[in-house]
Design brief:
The chain is α/β, with parallel strands linked by helices and 326 residues long. The chain is built from eight helices and 18 strands. Strands 4-3-6-1-2-5 form a six-stranded antiparallel sheet, covered by helices on one side. The chain has a five-stranded parallel sheet with strand order 9-8-7-10-11, sandwiched between helices. It has a five-stranded mixed sheet with strand order 13-12-18-14-16. Helix 2 (122-135) packs parallel to helix 3 (154-166). The N and C termini lie close together (6 Å). The relative contact order is 0.13. It binds FE2/S2 (inorganic) cluster. FE2/S2 (inorganic) cluster is lined by residues 273-276, 278-283, 296, 298, 311, 313. FE2/S2 (inorganic) cluster (FES) binds at residues 273-276, 278-283, 296, 298, 311, 313.
Length: 326
């Protein structure tokens, strides 16, 4: 496993961006220090008290090296991460933060980039639109929220849209409030009207992403991009396979009813994890031998087929034995 670099950053600002959405600006401890560069669509891991690690998309403009900006939605079903951030985090505190990683890359050369954001799913997309504006590339955004009170970053998006249109480019902002329109976003109609070379991106709740996947089923896979915030498939808990940890020269047996991550943690193996749902990529481990049973939403079809990496929080084994780089 490649261990991401950990940084200690200071919370410079907390802002109430919309109902239940807290914006966080993180800066280096020392003035005039630059942060690692990041790509549009990337996320960082926050290491919170009690060993919690949570991933959040960077929403500021790629190229900004003096700060990282994220936003945290207060999740009613929070297992502690977003609740702690909303209730305990204060300006001036320091946080341990992992270096940016990107499972949701932007095709910067697309003739048109079309974004579909639901609620807090606007965060990676805001960074992507900022990047396209810096490049002078056209985009359209359909941003669905239940009502105006829950829509974050609307003023920034309007300014980006006005800048694009002033430059004679497509930069269409379609704000869709379910409560006002009395219906959800018409994804099949929207997708059917797009130029065929468009690249499409979606981020948001499961229902929106399921509708997006259905509406884009006939599109070339390389033009359809999405990022899940929650798992789609159940984790592999069938067990009954052997795992060899090559670097530590250990062997262990995963039992029925537990995940590979459960077994690794029970055996005291030092492995990073965050979402435990196969969506963040924190628990990625290199596979040296054997065939994983991939259940995550991080790896694409080709990456799954290569069987060289796996997410140990949710994926299991199709072969009787796996050899991991641990
Ligand atoms: S912990 Fe998030 S993908 Fe495994």
């Amino acid at each position: 496993m490649s261990t991401p670099t950990l940084l200690t950053l200071r919370v410079r600002a907390l802002t109430w961006e919309a109902e239940g959405i807290l914006g966080i600006e993180l800066v280096p401890l020392q003035p005039n220090t630059l942060l690692p560069d990041f790509e549009a669509g990337a996320h960082i891991d926050l290491h919170l008290p009690d060993g919690l690690v949570r991933s959040y998309s960077l929403l500021n403009a790629p190229g900004e090296r003096q700060r990282w900006c994220i936003a945290v939605n207060r999740d009613a079903a929070s297992r502690g991460g977003s609740r702690w951030i909303h209730e305990q985090l204060r300006c001036g505190q320091t946080l341990t933060v992992g270096a940016p990683r990107n499972h949701f890359p932007l095709n910067e050369a697309a003739p048109l980039s079309v974004f579909i954001a639901g609620g807090i799913g606007i965060t990676p997309i805001l960074g992507m639109i900022r990047r396209l504006e810096a490049l002078g590339q056209p985009w359209r955004l359909h941003y669905a929220c239940r009502d105006r009170a829950h829509a974050a970053y609307v003023a920034e998006l309007q300014a980006l849209s006005e800048a694009a249109q002033a430059a004679g480019r497509d930069g269409t902002l379609d704000l869709h409030f379910d409560a006002e329109r009395g219906r959800v976003l018409d994804l099949p109609g929207l997708v059917a009207a797009l130029p065929p070379a468009s690249h499409l991106y979606a981020c948001g709740p499961k229902g929106l992403l399921a509708a997006y996947e259905a509406a884009t089923a006939a599109w070339p896979r390389e033009q359809v991009h999405l990022e899940y915030f929650a798992a789609q498939e159940a984790a592999a808990t069938e067990g009954g396979y052997q795992v060899e940890l090559q670097r530590s020269a250990r062997s262990l047996q995963v039992r029925p009813g537990e995940t590979l991550l459960d077994r690794l943690l029970a055996e005291g193996v030092d492995v990073l994890y965050s979402c435990r749902e196969g969506v963040c990529g924190t628990c990625e481990v290199r596979v040296l031998e054997g065939e994983p049973d991939h259940r995550d939403l991080v790896l694409g079809a080709a990456e799954r087929a290569a069987n060289t990496r796996m997410m140990v929080c949710c994926s299991g084994a199709r072969s009787a034995r796996l050899v991991l780089d641990l």
